[in-house]
Amino acid sequence: MNVNLPKKETLNVKAVVIYTIAIISCIIALVVIGLAFYYGSDELDRLITIGGSSLTQVDEEYQLLASNFDDIFQNQLEAYTTNVDVKKIDEGQDLVYTYYTKEENKENSYDLNLNIPYINIDDEVIAAYNEEIKTTYEEKAESTLQTENENIIYSLQYEATIENDILSLIIRANLKEGTSAQRLIIQTFNYDLRNHKEVTLEEMINQKQLNIDEVQNKIEQEIDAEYQRVETLRSLGYGVFERNPEDEMYKIENSEEFFVKNGKIYIIYAYGNENITSEMDLVII
Questions:
Q1: Rounded distance between C-alpha atoms, residue 48 and residue 35, angstroms
Q2: Is residue 266 a contact partner of residue 258, using CB atoms and an 8 Å limit?
Q3: For a surface tag, which of 22, 186, 230, 278 has the fewest beta carbons within 10 Å of its beta carbon?
Q4: Strands of 183-192's sheet, edge to edge?
Q5: What is the DSSP string of 232-253?
Q6: pLDDT at position 22, please?
Q7: The whole model's pTM is what?
Q8: What is the pLDDT of residue 11?
Q9: b vs e for 8-43, b when ≥16 Cβ sit within 10 Å of the residue's Cβ?
C-alpha cells in the first residue's frame, strides 16, 4: 500500500520579499504624507530638489505645453514685430489672414467648420504654399458641399506666428467620412522673411543654437516612449496605430512638420497625413 505523507512546509522566499517590499513602500508613503502635512506640499517639493530646481519642473513644463497644444489654433497671426520690409499682395490685410470660411451643416450629408488661411506675401515660394493650401483644403470643402448622405465631418483651424523674422504657419484639419475612422491632418509652412526662402527643421535648430544630436536624441526618446505605451495597449487587445521607432521619418532631416511659438519648436508627426488615423506624436524643444 502506498502512503503519501504530507510534505514538510518550506519557507516561501518570494512571498517574504514581496511582503517586505510592500511594507517598506507603505512606510515611505506614510513618511511622505507626514512630511507633506508638517511642511506643506510646497516646502516638501523644495526639500526634494537638487540645486534648488525641482526634478519634475522640466517635465511639468513639457506636459503643460503638450496638453495645451489644441489651444494654439486661434485662426490668426499673433502680434509680431519685424524689421523686414515685406511686400503684401493686399495692403488692407495682415500677412496671414482667413480668406475662406465655411460653417455649414446639412443633415446626414456634411458638417463643415472651416477657417482656411492665406499668406499675404508677394513671393514665388509663398505662391506655391497658397496654391497647395487651396488645392488640399478648399477644393475638399467645395467637393464636400456637393455630396449627399455621406455624413462627412470636416473642420480646419490654423495659427501663425512671426519670431526672429521667421513666419511659421500650422494648419490642422479633422476629417471623418461616413463610417471610416477620423483622420487628423497637420501641415506646416516655415518661411524666412529676410532671406525669402523656406526654412528646414535643421536650420531652425541651428538658429536657436541647439545641439542637433541632443534634439535627435530627444525625438527618439519621445517616440520610443510612445511606442512602448502603444505596444502595451495593443497587448491588452486595444486597436492602436502602430509606430516603428526605427523609421527614417523620425530623423531631423526628414521631419517636415514643425511650428515655432514663444521660442519653442513643436515637431509634429501626424500619421493622418498619410493614413486614416487621428494619431500623432508631438516633440517640443
A1: 11
A2: yes
A3: 22
A4: 96-106, 110-119, 152-163, 166-177, 183-192, 197-198
A5: HHHHTT---PPP-TT-GGGSGG
A6: 55
A7: 0.78
A8: 42
A9: eeeeeeeeeeeeeeeeeeeeeeeeeeeeeeeeeeee
Residue 31: the pLDDT is 44
Residue 33, domain member (yes or no):
no
Look over the chain and give the mean of its residue pLDDT values, rounded to a whole number. 84
Half-sphere exposure of 171 (CA within 13 A, CB side): 27
Domain membership of residue 264 (yes or no) is: yes
Residue 53 lies in a domain: no
The number of distinct structural domains making up the chain is 1
For β-strands 197-198 and 264-270, DSSP reports them as unpaired
List pLDDT tens digits, range 130-170. 999 999 999 999 999 999 999 999 999 999 999 999 999 99
Q: Tell me, what CATH number does 266's domain have? A: 3.30.565.40
Q: How far is CA 39 from CA 26, 27, 34, 35, 71, in A?
A: 20, 18, 8, 6, 36
Closest of 283, 173, 174, 172 to residue 223, by C-alpha: 283
Domain that holds residue 100: 66-284
Specify the pLDDT at position 62. Answer: 78
Nearest to 230 by CA among 251, 216, 220, 244: 244
Residue 29 lies in a domain: no
